[in-house]
Automatic annotation (TrEMBL):
It is found in: Cell membrane. Its EC number is 2.5.1.16. The active site is at D395. The gene is speE. S-methyl-5'-thioadenosine binds at Q261, E340, D374, A375, P403. The chain crosses the membrane at residues 25-53, 59-78, 90-113, 119-143, 155-178, 184-206, 218-239. HAMAP family: Spermidine_synth. Pathway: Amine and polyamine biosynthesis; spermidine biosynthesis; spermidine from putrescine: step 1/1. Spermidine binds at H297, D320. It comes from Streptomyces noboritoensis. This is Polyamine aminopropyltransferase. Residues 227-478 form the PABS domain.
């Protein structure tokens, strides 16, 4: 057990109360800063792992569970350092600043050049967790040296500062660090703050607890850590360019981090010739390829438009403007309302030469009305009075991606059905059939559970599969070779005129009824 002690001056007289109060405040301030930095490291790992590996729920569970386990190990290991709490804390903070600050860059490098980041993710979660877990026991020892409080009061103050710091770090990451600095620079800056706070506390407030040799080594260690972080920060731009080339190829033309996602465009400015056709990646996933997007979008929009009235069209997603292009090709279209979450995608679709040419300058058409909003929230709010629509096109990311799960729920399809006009149709992009059969038929079952009659079909001849980001796979048999769709109507089976390039799938429906996916019980897997 550690007994609280009262520091004494060289003459043997205890320091005055204000000095003890100031020292206690400084220690608690350091606890606050270290807790904020620790949570930023944690959120950096979760965010980057979700982007690089996919399935944010799984990655968050792996990071949090491994890190909490490692924190327990770190707390046990810190017991051996209590007799040398000051120097132990200084070394731990220097190591944590270096490991945590560089974690995002090393994870990205591992993914870009080695093709995977799972093992690196677990290793960093363990290392950072052990170091964070060792902080509190050592800080408890240090604060007892400058405070006359009973142990219970000391524990309360320490954990209050720790939890408030975690709150600040948790809010600073999504609202400040990520949008202003990005993941790599944000992690490096956090490491620098961590190193300065830990080093200053030990080298100034507890300098009498250190031998001259220990002071020199701690100072040198912190200077070295700060130098590494500063040098790495200066190289972030060149590193990001090299890593993007390794992931996306040598023709990266646009790379934008919006408040929603990272947008990358590759290919030539004209969409053909040197540089190749346009490819659009959203958070590392190939969303549009100029090689075969016409097959996808004509299969998505065509049957819904041709099977009944289509004067008013609603497109959910599709900020690239390509589904709008297909809708506008049909005579009789009076309006196209397009609901897209990311204003950055709409801006690129308007102004990028290759993308705007590919979508036929759809946004220049006066019939197109873009709305920047979450599709689910819009259908619950403004969308209820915006209808009715003859055709609703759900052009959203694959349902196996965790952020898209609510957009493939029974509740979502029920909301979409409410804005349909009598005889209206809804068509849903449901992911590839051949490689994700269970996911596809779960979508179809969920649409039927929302009270809609369905016509399942698919388009073959897909030329592009997993090429970059979380969708990259070394096994070509796992790459998607088709697109699956579900056409539906609340008033009976829609008479879909499926052309020879489209394959009806009603006869392939599973014999056993698959349970629908709901908000409280999502059933999709990546």
């Amino acid at each position: 057990m550690i007994e609280p002690s009262v520091p004494v001056l060289p003459c043997g007289i205890p320091p005055p109360a204000p000095r003890r109060s100031t020292a206690r405040f400084i220690v608690l301030g350091t606890v606050f800063i270290c807790a904020a930095c620790g949570l930023v490291y944690e959120l950096e790992l979760v965010a980057l792992a979700s982007y690089l590996i996919g399935d944010s729920v799984t990655q968050a569970s792996v990071v949090l569970s491994v890190m909490v386990f490692a924190m327990g190990i770190g707390s046990l290991l810190a017991k051996r350092l209590r007799l040398h709490a000051a120097v132990g804390f200084g070394l731990i903070e220097a190591a944590l600043a270096l490991v945590g600050g560089c974690s995002a860059m090393v994870l990205y490098a591992t993914f870009a050049w080695l093709g995977g980041a799972r093992y690196a993710l677990v290793a960093f979660s363990l290392a950072i967790g052990v170091l964070i877990g060792a902080e509190i026991p050592l800080l408890m020892t240090l604060i007892q040296r400058v405070s006359r409080q009973d142990p219970g009061g000391t524990v309360a103050d320490l954990f209050a500062a720790d939890y408030v710091g975690a709150l600040v770090g948790g809010l600073a990451f999504p609202f400040l660090l990520l949008p202003l600095l990005g993941q790599l620079t944000g992690a490096l800056l956090t490491g620098a703050v961590n190193a300065v706070a830990g080093g200053a506390l030990v080298l100034w407030l507890f300098r009498r607890d250190l031998t001259p040799r220990a002071r020199w080594w701690l100072f040198a260690a912190n200077v070295l850590v700060l130098a590494v972080l500063a040098t790495t920060t200066a190289l972030v731009g060149a590193f990001e360019q090299a890593a993007r080339r390794a992931v996306y190829g040598g023709q990266v033309r646009v790379a934008v981090q919006t408040g929603v996602q990272e947008i990358v465009l590759t290919g030539s400015r004209t969409g053909h010739g040197p540089g190749g056709p346009l490819d659009l990646f959203l958070d590392g996933r190939l969303r549009v390829s100029g090689r075969d997007e016409h097959r996808y979008h004509s299969a998505l929009v065509g049957p819904a438009m041709e099977s009944g009235p289509h004067g008013r069209v609603l497109i959910l997603g599709g900020g690239d403007g390509l589904a709008a292009r297909e809708a506008l090709r049909n005579p009789g279209v009076r309006s196209v309302t397009l609901v897209e979450l990311d204003a950055g995608v709409v801006d690129l679709a308007r102004h990028d030469p290759a993308l705007s040419a590919l979508n036929g300058h759809a946004y220049d058409d006066r019939r197109v009305r873009p709305v920047v909003a979450d599709a689910f929230g819009w259908l619950r709010g403004p969308g209820r009075s915006a209808g009715p629509f003859d055709v609703v096109v759900s052009d959203l990311p694959d349902p196996g991606i965790t952020p898209s799960t609510k957009l493939y729920s029974e509740e979502f399809f029920g909301l979409a059905a409410r804005v349909l006009a009598p005889g209206g149709r809804i068509v849903v992009h449901a992911g590839p059939v051949a490689t994700r059969e269970h996911t596809y038929w779960t979508v179809e079952s969920t649409v039927r559970a929302a009270g809609l009659w369905t016509v399942p079909y698919r388009a073959t001849g897909r030329l592009t599969g997993f090429t970059a980001g979380p969708d990259r796979a070394s096994d070509a048999t796992k790459a998607p070779h088709d697109w699956g769709f579900v056409l539906a109507s609340p008033s009976g089976p829609p008479g879909a005129p499926l052309g020879p390039e489209l394959e009806p799938l009603a006869d392939a429906r599973p014999r056993a009824e698959l349970p629908p996916s709901t908000l409280v019980h999502p059933r999709y897997t990546g």
